[in-house]
């Protein structure tokens, strides 16, 4: 049970005093006691503390006279009234004391207690209620103190009002349906009146009286919805058999905006408007004698025969404390006008001859006691009701208690509720994970033998402080609803700041926790181990908690372990009043906040969360471990490597190593399985170089050394597949350092290096001269190796064609160097030499190779055709096209310089010695390309002995070409004439597209509103100039208009109609 209040006798009547207490009133340090004799006693309350309490030291008892009484009697007004004083109240603002005696309400002076006025209208009064409130004047807005006195006189309620110490002239009356038994103010303008037929709400401003109805239940017979609460129904007829006794209606104000109504054992919660609040009733076994509210508890005084005071939580309705008070029948709680004004102050309970003052324990100690007793729900409810200023670190306390409650739920095998509460409290993941066995929590697990746990705690007690452990040291065993270490932590933290952040391991075992050590040991020993089905259920709930924690951590930490937002500087932290970052709740702190490396701790938490989540997946759902690796994670590589290797999940292990950028370890594992060198039997997908090639393709260019290191064995095993590392159509492959790759491939195989260069030059269009030259060098190196370097003659021919094609297409290699590298006496390189000479512009030497060395006249002719078409055309008066293919008959060869065909013809007819003229290819050249051979130079090469008939085809070609030139000139002249006529017609008549007359014959309207765009004057009768776009200016302004003919922007600055 809670020890929220302690009863201390304040006033005790002596035996010879035959007076009885009828009423009490406390205000300030005064207590007024109304007696049955009509006397009024005034007591002064003395505040007792530890220094004034009697004590015994060294066996010497303090003198009796030094003992201070709880209260001193200051005076007694024996003639205060002729009858028992039934009720007392004060209106402090008016400096008056209100009393109820002899069925009259009287007003006395608060200082002298002299009677000022006896309110005659209150004859037959049964009770009254007072209230004081600050009210603003609606017209001026000036605040004033308004006090009201409501007196119940049979069925009437008479109301007096004081405003700024002045009593209003008239009293207001309200008539109800029955005699009023109790009055309580709900607000400054509304009060609850209790009668035998039930309760009503009286609004003194609108003078409305409304019934307070209880909520109807579906199962109630006859439909009780709308029935006045407290009304005597057929079910209440039993009171008639008890001497017509009817229970007294009672009411009390609770928290802001709430009241509690009670009649017999029935209760009803209402708001300030009288509306019922859905809440269950207090579980009273018998009707209380009196009820009250002492923030934040509900009080119920049992009948004098029982002599007990119940202290309950108004939210949970739980019984927190029962205080034995013999024959107590009065309960007086000072009702403040300001919220929490009496917080920490005691209320009064009285019997006929004794008054007890209830001393309240401080709220922090009350919460500690509830936690010690394992009543976490009550502690959470109490924290929710208390103001922040009344507690030390309310949020931290509430969070800590929620975690303790979640821990208790976990031990009761309520895993889902426990993990949801841990998540709500934002518990450090380390604390939650420690509840699991080592298969999930690893070295962080708190599940260990009782003997080990006790020995560890004893060791801490012997040394006076806990031993220094690593960041993953074992937590104290949280396996009971209230573990020893948790209580020690919780109680000790209350004396320090940041109570929720200090480690459970950082405190000694307190005396409170030591007293329950034996019970905890028995509980630990008897608890069933977390295994089997229970473990599976608990781990599934842990997965959800850890997944949610991962999402929250991503708001603060990057994938590389750095913080997304820098920590506050010391100056900023001092301004905000908290040096802890926003993510401090994720960290289980073991040292003061100012000494913690927050970034490092957050990374450790992220690693712990991901590693534990991996263990959970491997235990209950191994198939989900793979997707975890494909995301950015902070899993501990050693743990993952061990688990996956033991379970044979090599593919997942490789994916994990790739995600953690442990590429060397992954590639070593792939090579081990790919070469079939592992002792374990691996999946068929891991055999061979396929996975290694795919892995290497994903690596960035910065890791070129690692790529080349592990690319050799796939290249030697399967060259075609291995080359995909460098030839794939991916960004990584295209951005690899090409020089490094080329050197590596050349060491492995010349053919692979040549294939890579072909890809780089042809597919990627690399124009680096070095690569072009190296490709030629590789071709020549392979071709010079002889037939042994090739598997067949077809392959050798293919390489030779590649060399020739590349020499012909590339312009980036060193031509002189390439020409010198080509052998002069090897027929396989004759054509290659001719191609290089052609690239150097040495056409005659190239043609000599085709004519004299290769004796391939067809290739010589093709060479001339290619050279002629690629040579820029000469200027021609009748030619506009630059396409070389149209030059066959576009100009007169008589005016042209000797062409490449003339060079070939000269080699045929006038070869250098020792070669002789070759007539057949020469005549064939003349017949096919005679139009391209100037007659003046061509005929000089033909010997006089050659018959003219052999030159028939040559002369026919020449004649056709001359006719073509002449006909082309005629056609061009006629087309230009037609074009001239069309332009002149458009100038005179326009284009006629809009159906109007255009050109120079068009009309332009000059109105009065039209101005010159240059001088901005009217045209009048002046000479004007009209442009093709119908813009008009003065003739004299043409020079200044900036226009010439139909152009110019100067006159276009204004839009013309």
TrEMBL record:
Keyword Membrane: yes
Cellular localization per UniProt: Endomembrane system
Biased composition (Polar residues): 466-479
PROSITE patterns given in the database record: CNH
Membrane topology term: Peripheral membrane protein
Pfam families: CNH (PF00780), Vps39_1 (PF10366), zf-Vps39_C (PF10367)
Protein's UniProt keywords contain Membrane: yes
Compositionally biased region (Acidic residues): 48-57
PANTHER family (alphabetical): CNH DOMAIN CONTAINING, VAM6_VPS39-LIKE PROTEIN
Similarity comment text for this entry: Belongs to the VAM6/VPS39 family.
Protein name: CNH domain-containing protein
Species: Lepidopterella palustris CBS 459.81
């Amino acid at each position: 049970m809670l020890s929220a209040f302690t009863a201390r006798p304040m006033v005790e009547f002596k035996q010879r005093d035959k007076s009885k207490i009828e009423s009490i009133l406390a205000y300030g340090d005064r207590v007024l006691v109304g007696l049955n004799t009509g006397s009024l006693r005034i007591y002064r309350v003395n505040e007792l503390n530890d220094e004034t309490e009697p004590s015994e030291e060294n066996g010497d008892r303090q003198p009796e006279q030094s003992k201070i009484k709880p209260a001193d009697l200051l005076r007694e007004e024996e003639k205060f009234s002729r009858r028992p004083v039934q009720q007392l109240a004060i209106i402090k603002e008016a400096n008056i004391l209100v009393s109820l005696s002899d069925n009259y309400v009287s007003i006395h002076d608060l200082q002298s207690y002299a009677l000022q006025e006896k309110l005659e209208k209150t004859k037959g009064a049964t009770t009254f209620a007072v209230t004081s409130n600050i009210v603003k004047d609606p017209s001026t807005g000036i605040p004033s103190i308004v006090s009201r006195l409501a007196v119940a006189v049979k069925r009437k309620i008479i109301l007096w009002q004081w405003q700024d110490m002045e009593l209003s002239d008239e009293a207001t009356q309200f008539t109800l349906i029955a005699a009023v038994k109790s009055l309580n103010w709900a607000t400054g303008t509304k009060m609850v009146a209790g009668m035998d037929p039930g309760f009503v709400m009286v609004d003194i401003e609108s003078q409305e009286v409304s019934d307070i109805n209880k909520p109807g239940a579906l199962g109630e017979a006859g439909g009780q919805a709308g029935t006045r609460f407290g009304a005597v129904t057929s079910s209440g007829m039993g009171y008639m058999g008890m001497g017509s006794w009817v229970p007294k209606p009672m009411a009390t104000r609770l928290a802001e905006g709430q009241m509690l109504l009670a009649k017999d054992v029935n209760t009803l919660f209402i708001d300030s408007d009288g509306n019922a609040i859905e809440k269950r009733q207090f579980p009273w076994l018998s009707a209380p004698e009196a009820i009250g509210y002492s923030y934040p508890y509900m009080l119920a005084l049992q009948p004098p025969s029982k002599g007990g005071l119940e202290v309950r939580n108004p939210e949970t309705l739980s019984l927190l404390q029962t205080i034995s008070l013999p024959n107590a029948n009065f309960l007086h709680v000072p009702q403040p006008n300001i919220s929490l004004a009496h917080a920490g102050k005691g209320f009064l309970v009285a019997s006929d001859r004794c008054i007890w003052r209830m001393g309240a324990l401080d709220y922090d100690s009350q919460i500690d006691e509830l936690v010690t007793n394992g009543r976490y729900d009550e502690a959470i409810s109490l924290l929710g009701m208390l103001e922040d200023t009344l507690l030390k670190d309310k949020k931290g306390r509430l969070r800590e208690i929620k975690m303790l409650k979640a821990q208790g739920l976990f031990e009761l095998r309520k895993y889902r509720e426990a993990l949801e509460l841990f998540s709500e409290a934002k518990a450090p993941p380390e604390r939650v994970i420690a509840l699991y066995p080592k298969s999930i929590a690893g070295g962080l697990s708190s599940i260990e033998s009782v003997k080990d746990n006790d020995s560890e705690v004893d060791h801490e007690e012997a040394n006076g402080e806990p031993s220094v452990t690593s960041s993953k040291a074992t937590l104290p065993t949280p396996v009971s609803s209230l573990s020893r270490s948790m209580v020690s932590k919780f109680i000790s933290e209350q004396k320090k700041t940041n109570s929720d952040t200090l480690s459970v391991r950082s405190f000694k075992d307190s005396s409170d926790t030591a007293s329950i050590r034996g019970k905890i040991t028995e509980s630990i020993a008897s608890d069933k181990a977390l295994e089997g089905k229970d473990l599976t259920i608990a781990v599934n709930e842990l997965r959800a908690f850890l997944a949610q924690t991962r999402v929250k951590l991503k708001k603060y930490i990057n994938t590389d372990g750095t913080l997304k937002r820098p920590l506050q500087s010391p100056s900023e932290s001092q301004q905000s009043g908290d040096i802890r970052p926003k993510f401090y709740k994720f960290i289980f702190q073991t040292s003061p906040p100012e000494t913690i490396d927050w970034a490092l701790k957050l990374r450790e938490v992220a690693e712990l969360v991901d590693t534990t989540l991996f263990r959970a997946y491997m235990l209950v759902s191994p198939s989900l471990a793979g997707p975890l690796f494909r995301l950015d994670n902070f899993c501990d590589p050693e743990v993952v490597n061990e688990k996956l290797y033991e379970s044979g999940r090599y593919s997942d292990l490789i994916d994990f190593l790739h995600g953690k950028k442990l590429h060397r370890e992954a590639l070593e594992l792939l090579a081990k399985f790919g070469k079939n060198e592992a002792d374990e039997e691996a999946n068929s997908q891991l055999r061979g170089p396929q996975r290694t090639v795919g892995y290497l393709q994903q690596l960035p260019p910065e890791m070129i050394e690692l790529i080349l290191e592990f690319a050799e064995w796939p290249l030697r095993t399967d060259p075609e597949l291995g080359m995909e590392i460098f030839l794939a159509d991916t960004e990584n492959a295209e951005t690899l350092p090409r020089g490094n790759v080329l050197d590596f491939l050349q060491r492995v195989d010349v053919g692979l290096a040549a294939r890579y260069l072909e890809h780089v030059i042809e597919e990627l269009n690399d124009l680096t001269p070095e690569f072009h030259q190296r490709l030629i060098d590789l071709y020549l190196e392979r071709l010079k190796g002889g037939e042994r370097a090739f598997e067949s003659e077809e392959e050798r021919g293919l390489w030779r064609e590649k060399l020739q094609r590349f020499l012909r297409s590339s312009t980036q290699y060193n031509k002189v160097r390439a020409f010198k590298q080509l052998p002069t006496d090897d027929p396989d390189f004759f054509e290659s030499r001719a191609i290089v000479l052609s690239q150097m512009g040495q056409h005659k030497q190239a043609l000599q190779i085709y004519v004299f060395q290769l004796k391939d006249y067809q290739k010589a002719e093709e060479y001339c055709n290619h050279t002629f078409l690629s040579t820029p055309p000469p200027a021609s008066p009748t030619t506009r096209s630059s396409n070389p293919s149209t030059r066959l008959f576009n100009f007169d060869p008589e005016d042209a310089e000797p062409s490449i065909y003339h060079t070939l013809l000269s080699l045929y007819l006038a070869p250098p010695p020792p070669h002789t003229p070759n007539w057949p290819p020469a005549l064939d050249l003349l017949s096919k390309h005679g139009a391209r051979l100037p007659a003046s130079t061509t005929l000089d090469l033909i010997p006089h002995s050659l018959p003219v008939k052999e030159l028939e085809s040559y002369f026919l070609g020449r004649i056709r070409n001359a006719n073509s030139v002449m006909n082309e000139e005629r056609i061009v002249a006629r087309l230009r004439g037609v074009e001239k006529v069309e332009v002149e017609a458009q100038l005179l008549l326009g284009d006629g597209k809009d159906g109007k007359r255009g050109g120079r014959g068009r009309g332009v309207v000059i109105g009065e509103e039209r101005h010159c765009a240059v001088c901005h004057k009217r045209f009048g009768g002046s000479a004007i100039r009209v442009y093709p776009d119908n813009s008009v200016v003065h003739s004299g302004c043409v020079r200044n208009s900036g226009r010439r003919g139909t152009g110019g922007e100067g006159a276009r600055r204004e839009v013309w109609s």
